[in-house]
Write a structure and sequence with these properties.
single chain; 255 residues; alpha/beta; TIM Barrel; 8-stranded parallel β-barrel; 8 helices; 8 strands; 40% helix
């Protein structure tokens, strides 16, 4: 068992599917999280077939389907075509969002609505043999480790699992403290190096965050998906360097 290094296709939204696949192969990656916004819209059967076939033909795996359905905001019936698309792609997991309000402004009604919708969505995913991955992100109910644990416990649905990524502007120590309550449950990781805010740095510039985070993650999930998301300047030529940095760190972890 080994970690699976991959790419979120949203990193290169402006590029065609074939070029995203080519770049992934050239960087020595294992898998791709295909986004539903541009490359693999759920309503576009031809696009889904192209993504599935090009990914498989290149020897890559579809890691997940990056969807933009928001629990408690979008109707549950809107999730059905998303799950259909994930099955066409052969994705084991669909990435979704826990509402559209952060915990600083969420009311009891917000929590009830998001919990109920997430639980129902998780059951739909489970019935299809899929997992539902919650984006770890600001302005949602998964904007901190504590709120994510609370939501997962309230939902109580084994098919619902969390993603993890460092929160914007967290120092390395704070980011690691935010990982530890989730580390046993994390299903996938979005890997990027932003500082300050969303200023995109080379991955190596945040080694003090990522090397200990990877040690924590791989100690519990030796085959976890580590998905590169965004690169400095949105420059495709930077992907291979970023992938090499991540690979070097992974190889340096002793578990």
């Amino acid at each position: 068992m080994a970690p699976q290094l991959g790419l979120c296709s949203v990193t290169f939204r402006s590029l065609p599917v074939a070029e995203v696949v080519r770049l992934s192969v050239a960087a020595g990656l294992d898998c791709v999280e295909w986004g539903a916004d541009v490359h693999a819209p759920p309503s576009d059967a031809a696009a889904l077939a192209e993504v599935r076939d090009r990914t498989a033909d290149a020897g890559l795996r579809v890691a997940s389907y990056g969807a933009y359905w928001r629990a408690g905001v979008h109707p549950l019936e809107d999730l059905h075509p998303v799950l259909d698309a994930a099955q066409v792609l052969g994705a084991p997991r669909v990435r979704v969002w826990a509402g559209d309000r952060g915990t600083d402004v969420a009311t009891d009604e917000t929590w009830r609505r998001v919990v109920d919708a997430t639980s129902a969505a998780g059951e739909l995913a489970r019935a299809r043999g899929l997992r539902l991955g919650l984006e770890f992100h600001a302005r949602t109910l998964t904007d901190s480790a504590e709120s994510t644990v609370r939501l997962l416990d309230l939902v109580g649905q084994p098919a619902v699992v969390p993603y993890w990524q460092p929160r914007l502007d967290d120092q390395p120590g704070a980011a690691l403290e935010g990982l530890r309550p989730l580390v046993d449950r994390v299903d996938a990781v979005h890997v990027f190096s932003w500082w300050p805010g969303d200023h995109r740095l080379p991955l190596a510039d945040r080694a003090d965050l990522w090397q200990p985070a990877l040690a924590e993650l791989l100690g519990r999930h030796p085959a976890i998906d580590l998905l590169l998301e965004f690169v400095p300047g949105d420059d495709p030529s930077r992907l291979s360097t970023e992938a090499a940095t991540l690979r070097r760190w992974v190889q340096g972890v002793r578990v």
